[in-house]
Amino acid sequence: MRVAIVQPSYIPWRGFFDMIRSVDLLLFFDDVQYTRRDWRNRNRIKTAAGPRWLTIPVHRHAREEIIRNIAICYEPDWRAEHLNLLCVWYGKTPFYERYTSRFADILATRPESLCELDIALTRWLMEELGIATAVERTSRLPVTGAKTDRLLALLGRVGATDYLSGPAAKDYIDPDAFRRAGVGLCYKRYDYAAYPQPWGDFLDFMSVLDLLFNTGPDAPSYLRNLIGDERVVPARSPAFVR
Predict the structure, then answer these.
(1) What pLDDT is attached to residue 47?
(2) 154 touches 44 (CB < 8 A)
(3) In total, how many domains does the chain have?
């Protein structure tokens, strides 16, 4: 079984969903330290002036607080601002009406925690993209250890034979530990075809909402990586291919 472990993020870019569709099980890493000015509470949309951030304000918290304990601040009402900006910059795109109502409905539920909102939106976006990967949260799989040891403990709990990691994790993952544990290790690489966009030259790394508003039901075809992922440690079973 191939597994990915990712931190919950706000309306992530398409590479996030390519990773999800490439595995059998996604674990949301919700019990690690929250990092400020990161993807947990913000993402970017394309405007005529270039990328613009949509940011969710959160309540003050200890520096060491974990992601699942971060509370959303609803005053002032950032939800109206986000919806208005999407209308201004995507209101004339071919599929804006198809997706904006459901997005607004999820925001209207006013979940207390950032984690709950991020996961609810990700599950909805998975549905829209035709991704049926199973999902679980690491906080429901308590294990001990740090860095590579903790990753391997989590992977052992779910019976993983292969781990798909983001490339940034190369700085702390120990491939030899994966070899000793008999678990495959592969790093995701990102290279995708451009898709139709308004406002000048194509910009990648926007929120996946940009992809959906512009391409609608064709969006899944733009999730396919043009290059292979980087295999570091062979998997015990044949590599998972979707």
Answers:
(1) 98
(2) no
(3) 1
